[in-house]
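Many introductory courses stop at the sequence. We go one step further.
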Amino acid sequence: MFKETLEKGAAGLGISLTERALEKMSSYCQALLEKNRELNLTAIRDEDEAALLHFVDSLAILGAYDIAGKSVIDVGTGGGFPGIPAAVAVPEAQVTVLDSTVKKINFIRDACGALDINVRTIAGRAEELALEPRHRERYDAAVS
């Protein structure tokens, strides 16, 4: 049901997802909900709710800005939203996810590695990262 809900929601935004993208997002959702049993990644516990309230909501950013070929930072990603769905839907984007909770970033790094999702992960605080020359004004877009 997850894939159908996601596909319908994305279509409502004018976004067409490949079968590969649907599979990756479905697998990421399963990993997220499994890990959520031991680490508070999201208050959402149902995959259909996650499809709408995490994945489709995350894809809405694609209607506001074309991220293909752009560098995007997701500040305070939490469980990986909106960065992971954006990275899956637009693999040409260079997506970086940032969160201050190391355990969340470790989960995202491991899950994305296993699913071959191209994202860069950073554990840290946005206000500190903004002072580092290698990150300051280096992204085309910031999402949260």
